[in-house]
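#dry-run=false #mode=assembly
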Amino acid sequence: MGARFARRWQLAVAALLGLLLAGCATGRLDATKPVGQEARDIDFLMRLSGWMAVGVGIFVAAAVFAIIVKFRAKPTDDPDDLPPQIHGNRKAELTWTLIPTALLVFLTIFTLGTVFDLAAAGTGRTIKVEGQQWWWQFTYELDKDEIDKYNLDQDGRYEIVTANDLVIRTGEEVNLEIHSNDVIHSFWIPQLNGKKDAVPGRVHHWRISSDEPGIFYGECVEFCGLSHANMQMRTIVLTPEEFDRWMREQLAGQAAAQVAPADESPEAAGAALFETHCISCHVVDGVYESAAGGNANLLAGIAPNLTNLMSRTAFAGALYETYQTGPDGAYLRNPDGSLKLNVAELREWVRNAPDMKPARADNQQGMLDFSEVLTDQDLDNLMAYLQTLGSPPVLP
Ligand code: CUA
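#status=ok
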């Protein structure tokens, strides 16, 4: 009986330790290393309340200990001799009511200040964020100044649509307009701000910013079905010059995608396969219109827009890296300095996606299994075509 009890106890401790360690597993999600004002405000509040709790904890523990020692029974005490019995003590009751009240009021002032601060709109651009099972889409609409700056047609409407990688620049207070296209998700980049739900039929506004360039990781934090844990995203923070280059390359990628690759090349064969198998879900700007006879609504939109696929650091809900990284996470490069495409996983993803990320393709949630449809030659051609879509990512 005793041994069994000890065993259970050990198991309970092991389970608790396991849970504790699981919390450390994803070192890429760390709210204690804020890089922008919003996350710093939250971090301050967390530390303030944390240290106040530590202070209260130490005070209470010390008081309990002191009372135990001071009023402990002595061998000379008569066990029937009770201390004086009292009812109520106004001084003590006021003390233990007023001190916690003052602490909570103090904390409330800071909390409310932060809540209102975080709700305010930023001064920078607005980016539309759309959560869906199980990936994030980001849409940038170019304003008049940018249309001017990049020498675009003044009457046109220009959008850059991307997935997984949210690209922003340092020092800009970016306004996110958070939508959901199916169920409730929640957007969280811990180093940039707290969590914000994406709720169908509603628009939630959220602000992020970063003082330093870098890649900051995030995940969907509202259980949203089968691949909830695989619904990741990252924010790539660039300097203003790098961001400008990224913009230009996105626009160049859009223009280039509309020119069909040359005949007889693997790229052209891949483009033809893409029009047969892929465009009922995936948009490549300028390509699907021709295939749908101009009726773009018939096709595309439930899967990532692939126009600038090569410019993204990740695919499949940011579950896989587009380019190869070493054990330390640094990008591997070819002898000419270019990034090494993660061709093995990208190819496997196109061949049999459900094998790499649980999904319900039969219910328009996730990519279909093409392993019975595409030959090895088809896959090679498709990979050749996909590599024409956009420039390599601009890295911080
Ligand atoms: Cu989307 Cu969890």
